[in-house]
Amino acid sequence: MSRVKTVRPGESIQRALDEAGPGASIVLTEGTYTESVWIRHGGVSLTGAGPGRTLLAPGDGVPADVPRLHDATEDVVSGVTVHGDAVANVTIEALTVTGFTGAGIYAHSVAGVRVRDVEARGNAVWGVYLRESSGCEVSGCRASGSQYGGVALSFCPDSDGLVAGNETFANAFGIFVDNSSNARVVRNACHGNAIGMLLLNQVYEGEPEGGVRDCLVAGNDLHGNGLAAGAEPDGLGAAGPPISGVGLALIGTHRVAVVDNHIHDNHPSGESVMGAGLVIGSSKDWGGDDALDNHLLWNRVTGNTPLDFQLGADLTRQTFAGNTAGKGDPAELLDRDDASGGWRR
């Protein structure tokens, strides 16, 4: 039987976690907690009274030797870090994590992390960032105001991940599937970012093997993404190229099914290397690959500028059927419904 421990504002969440150990259920009552938390035991649940009712915010309490956010400087602090030998089956739910200089929630090299009904607001680098992990779920969350991704799966080669029913806004990337495969990204609303959703296969020096394969992107509403990222040295999306006004991009992906998504009313406010609401392209020049064997079925791609779709890929290696768009490149795909068409006005 799991041990249940209730923590109230003014008491230490970290002390409760460390004393309770593996398998514990830590319940946070309503109020504000000013500390950073490290979950280093398996089977733990951390549950608040609900977003906006239980808040985790920066303070003096930073656990000794807590792992720092990947690629970040030593002074960067995340709200909740999940990491440790054989750490698995951790649940974080029903709270707000806000104002941290790193990620709101950061999980590295773990299995079975579930982040549910969490608001990650105004965390400087990432909202919810899951790296080199498997069997993870992010569902029913709101992630906003981060320099890079609201929700990200990064270098999870066999993620078995679920990203479902989230809302992301005011980030560079609403949802970022970064060199991660076997993920389901469904029923999310991504608006007011630079790009609503990015699936990227790109190999980086010193990083694990890349690739984005065998993913499902279905039932998402990607609209009104028009922030400018990659334009300022220390600004939104600073490490990447300029991107603005994109709903969904598949870059170097293999066997991704894009089904029944609504991609609409995305308009750039600055320079962008991508010029449409929906983009398919190659990452071969950056150590990735061409986009191959993707399936785009029954998507509505309308009202985007300058184009609805931009397909920089071998079209004989993609499948299109039942899609709706107003304008695109190549334009000749419109009003055809055969193996190389599948786009209607």
From TrEMBL:
Family annotation (InterPro entries): Beta_helix (IPR039448), Para_beta_helix_rpt-2 (IPR022441), PbH1 (IPR006626), Pectin_lyas_fold (IPR012334), Pectin_lyase_fold/virulence (IPR011050), SCF-Subunits/Alg-Epimerases (IPR051550)
Residue span of region Disordered: 321-345
Entry annotated with the keyword Repeat: yes
Pathway membership: Protein modification; protein ubiquitination
SMART domains referenced in this protein's UniProt entry, alphabetically: PbH1
Feature: compositional bias, Basic and acidic residues: 329-339
Signal sequence segment: none
Keywords noted in UniProt: Repeat, Ubl conjugation pathway
Superkingdom field: Bacteria
Keyword Repeat: yes
Segments crossing the lipid bilayer: none
Segments forming domain Right handed beta helix: 79-226
NCBIfam families attached to this UniProt entry: para_beta_helix (TIGR03804)
Name assigned to this protein: Parallel beta-helix repeat protein
Origin species: Nonomuraea roseoviolacea subsp. carminata
